[in-house]
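Margin note from the TA: students keep mixing up input and output lines. Inputs are the sequences; the output is the structure of the whole complex. Example:
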Amino acid sequence: MASRLVQLFSLRRFDFAPLTAGTTMEIELVRCLRVLDWVEATLEVRVHAVSMTSGGSIHVRLTPTSLTPEDPSVGFRAASPTFSASITSSTTAPALVVATVGSAIGGYLRLSVLGTRGSGAGSYQADLSAVLVGKR
Amino acid sequence: MPIFIPFLSRRVYDFSSMVGTATEVVVVRALDVVDWRAGQLVVRVHAVTITAGTINVAVLMTSPSVDAPQTDFVRVSPDVASAAIAGSVPGDLVVEALRAPIGGHLRLVVQAVASGGGGTLRATLSAALYMRERP
């Protein structure tokens, strides 16, 4: 597989408003993305709109994973490294937030979005789209 | 396969009317570089007169979206490369390696920052990219 640009998700809203202060919620978007043929990749997250109170954050994360037919219900994931593009209350739309997946890219990646609310109440959402640019 | 991309033909950039402000001229909005991992920015200085201020040719990461085709999603900092023209003389070739990651698309711009006191801020430039599949 040659170098290519993979659309991870089109424009959509991530709304973590129901979270209470200091709590987190992770949404799994892709359980296992094959990146076996690439030596590096760049996660590009476009921030179309953002409304977030101070202290909160939304991370679009790629985590090395490895599934096995011997135990298919378990998503084996590396504790580190996690490659994360972070959107905070100081992010101003439109913006491009980037994370680099270097030599530790491995063979498969899990894509998730993690929301963490700070101490403040109020709106906590972002309109995002993302692509992954893989290079061989 | 390595490739030579002459994205800017010889052109005069005259920002002398600016005083204490900054501006950016977009030369290429989104250049597809998915197939390359490394490269160099080369800027030829044909003529230059800068008494105050700066002119840079910069390469920025961008990510065009079909969801919002009119919007420019640009990573302003850090840049992928920036060639400073101030201090150059005619005949100079300013070469800057592209810093990884270069991502999928590049935005090529000429940036000018004028000093508060004004002054001559003019350069005649041409520029190209050398793109390679391996660093």
